[in-house]
Write a structure and sequence with these properties.
Chain B: The chain crosses the membrane at residues 12-39, 77-101, 113-133, 181-200, 212-233, 269-289. Chain B: It is a multi-pass membrane protein. Chain B: Residues 73-290 form the ABC transmembrane type-1 domain. Chain B: It is found in: Cell membrane. The complex is a heterodimer of chains A (330) and B (303). Chain A contains 18 helices and no strands. Chain A is mainly α. Chain A has 2 domains: 1-28; 89-326, MetI-like fold, CATH 1.10.3720. Chain B is mostly helical. Chain B has 2 domains: 1-56, no CATH class; 64-298, MetI-like fold. Helices cover 72% and strands 0% of the residues of chain B. Chain B is built from 13 helices and no strands. Chain B has helices at residues 6-32, 58-64, 67-100, 104-115, 122-132, 140-149, 160-188, 192-200, 205-231, 237-243, 249-252, 255-265, 269-298. In chain B, α3 crosses α7 (160-188) and α5 packs parallel to α10 (237-243). The longest helix of chain B has 34 residues, at 67-100. The radius of gyration of chain B is 25 Å and the shape is globular. The model of chain B has no long low-confidence stretch (mean pLDDT 87). Classes of the chains: A mainly alpha (330), B mainly alpha (303).
């Protein structure tokens, strides 16, 4: 979708035929291609290659290090390939009970959060897509105000605490379930649907509920998939709701757990999180081939980060479509 | 059937209830929670702690009379504006350059790769940064530095002067590609006839880019700019929090991290809410100024 829509400009596709019909233009164009433009094209491609390298290499480096023996990694720089290959870092990282637990919590909040979110959004979007809805402007105004003024970290915390949502799984899915921006995107989509089906169903005596269930939900599936993907991505990457509202270990999400392992300022957090205190002590003294903290951090990083990076290209078409609908509206 | 009657459309109003309830609970309640800034708040005084004594503007007077607040506010703005100055043009330039690529397959690959870092959390980015900058042999940057220039291995993350450049680098690295999507979308809806007309007038690709593509991007840029202005005074909590460490924390705090440490961690609810509210008001004013300027220069606005 993005590529189909973004290549309007290049000579290769759409414009080629137009240019063909105008020989004079084409000729002039050719002369220009053969001069400074070629230099520009080459530089542009080089620039893109550098950019790709800068984007990919950090991930590659982490993977390489996570596959290298800990003590060996400390012995000298490693660049592109593991020097002493081992899988033991992953064995240790995956043996950690917290990892499995936090993975389950993260998946649960992503899936449930997405389901709740698209239900709430679709219901509201459908109602607001009706131009004749009473108080329509008032509703939209109510939903819009929080975009401009709102609470902050502390007032959010106080409110969540007073609602009894501290150390409660619901704090992951409730506060972010409704988003004005997403709702507008879905509403725009619904407004573009052909009205005939809905009207004839209404004439046959169907109420809003049946129309919603039998017509709107099936037709809105593409946009709902895109929104669900967005919600799940942000749930997967969210770290601060855990930081602010959760202190119970069984409710930690992967990102927070990763934070404790890699960035946590206390060593006990790390040891505790990894449950490998003794083994690491041995490794630090060079007693055995156990992983060192550094390589364990790397393998954890890979485990938490990589899944999404492999999934996202398959969803690229969806989310870019979603972005574009929103962008055109905005 | 007369659908404009309330009794005929009450189902639609019921459909709005979940969204309204969520908005009231999680947007409006915290908004009204700002009254805490005018109280000497204790969680246990009366219903929702709202029985706490009123102290008027005392909390504001407290921090407005102290130097640390001005340092904090100035640092927040400096960080936000510096990041903005680099990250905004980066996305725009990337979009323009991607648009000039002739090979569609290569363009697609470059685009796909450029989105990758957006799907990585700030925890991961900060963790990677700390590892690359570490002093030991895992520290990629020190490895490169020593291999190329020799000399000492440096402790980067304890240097407060390096903190802002690192904020900029990580922000640009993470969001440049994602930010370019909107510009590419805006480029795709520019009328192709404009390019043909420019070509007939003898404009090469460079001049087409300057005189057709760039002007076509002005509305998108202005809208994005207005929204960014509104968030200048808040700052990116996740990025800041994860990149800080104990050694440099006090010298690098911005408003959002400050009120987290003071309010949530330190239970100084009233004073930190007051600081947060002050920041919120400034953000709102910036948003409105941006909106006004946007209207003046290109007839684009968000409200």
């Amino acid at each position: 979708m993005a590529n189909a829509s973004t290549n309007t400009r290049t000579n290769a596709s759409a414009n080629a035929s137009a240019v063909d019909t105008m020989p004079a233009v084409r000729k002039r164009h050719k002369i220009r291609v053969s001069t400074g433009e070629r230099v520009f094209d080459t530089l542009n491609i080089l620039f893109m290659l550098v950019l790709i390298a800068i984007t990919i290499y950090p991930f590659w480096y982490i993977i390489v290090m996570s596959l290298n023996e800990g003590n060996d990694a400390m012995a000298g720089p490693i660049w592109f390939w593991p020097r002493k290959f081992t899988l033991i870092n992953y064995e240790y990282a995956l043996n950690n009970p917290y990892l499995i637990q936090s993975f389950l919590v993260t998946v649960a909040r992503a899936v449930l959060g997405a389901l709740l979110s698209i239900s709430v959004l679709l219901l509201a979007a459908y109602a607001l897509s009706k131009r004749y809805l009473k108080f329509r402007k008032t509703y939209i105004f109510l939903f819009m105000i929080p975009l401009f003024i709102g609470g902050n970290v502390v007032t959010n915390y106080l409110v969540i605490a007073k609602f009894g949502l501290l150390n409660n799984f619901l704090v992951y899915i409730l506060p972010g379930a409704f988003s004005f921006f997403f709702m507008i995107i879905i509403r725009t989509f619904i407004e573009q649907l052909p009205e005939g089906m809905e009207e004839s169903a209404m004439i046959d005596g169907a109420g809003y509920l049946r129309v919603f269930y039998h017509i709107i939900i099936p037709l809105a599936k593409p946009i709902l998939a895109a929104m669900a993907f967005f919600v799940m991505v942000s749930a997967w990457l969210d770290f601060s709701s855990n930081l602010f509202y959760i202190t119970k270990k069984s409710l930690y999400v992967m990102q927070y757990w990763l934070y404790l392992v890699t960035l946590g300022q206390s060593n006990t957090d790390f040891m505790d999180a990894m449950k490998v205190g003794a083994a690491i002590q041995n490794a630090a003294q060079g007693v055995s081939a156990q992983p060192t903290p550094q390589v364990l951090k790397m393998s954890t990083l890979v485990i938490v980060t990589l899944p999404l990076l492999f999934i996202y290209p398959f969803f690229q078409r969806f989310f870019i479509k979603g972005m574009l609908v929103g962008a055109i509206k905005a | 059937m007369n659908v404009t009657k309330f009794s005929k459309q009450y189902v639609l109003h019921l459909f709005l209830i979940p969204a309204l309830v969520l908005t009231l609970l999680f947007n409006y309640a915290p908004m009204f929670g700002n009254v805490v800034a005018f109280m000497d708040y204790s969680m246990f005084d009366g219903w929702m702690g709202l029985g706490s004594p009123w102290v008027g503007l005392d909390n504001f007077k407290t921090f407005l009379s102290e130097q640390w607040f001005y340092d904090l506010a100035l640092r927040t703005l400096t960080y936000s504006i510096s990041i903005l100055i680099f990250s905004f043009p980066a996305s725009l330039i990337l979009a323009l350059l991607l648009n000039e690529l002739r090979n569609q397959l290569f363009k697609k690959i470059a685009q796909t790769v450029s989105y990758i870092p957006h799907f990585v959390s700030w925890v991961t980015v900060a963790a990677m940064l700390y590892m690359f900058l570490s002093v030991d042999m895992n520290g990629l940057v020190n490895n490169i530095k020593v291999a190329l220039f020799g000399g000492e291995r440096l402790i980067f993350m304890q240097d407060t002067k390096l903190f802002l450049p690192l904020l900029i680098v990580t922000q640009v690295w993470k969001e440049m590609g994602w930010g370019s999507i909107l510009y590419l979308a805006a480029i795709s809806v520019i009328d192709p006839h404009l390019y043909e007309a420019a070509a007939i007038d003898g404009a090469g690709r460079w001049r087409q880019m300057i005189h057709v593509t760039l002007p076509g991007l002005v509305p998108t840029t202005v809208v994005l700019m207005i929204f960014t202005l509104g968030s200048l005074f808040g700052g990116n909590f996740d990025q800041m929090f994860n990149m800080q460490n104990i050694v440099i924390q006090d010298q690098t705090n911005i408003i959002s991290t400050y009120i987290y440490y003071q309010g949530v961690k330190g239970a100084q609810f009233s004073i930190s809410t007051a600081v947060g509210l002050f920041g919120g008001v400034i953000s709102f004013i910036l948003l409105m100024i941006g909106n006004y300027v946007g209207k003046k220069i290109s007839n684009t606005s968000i409200v």
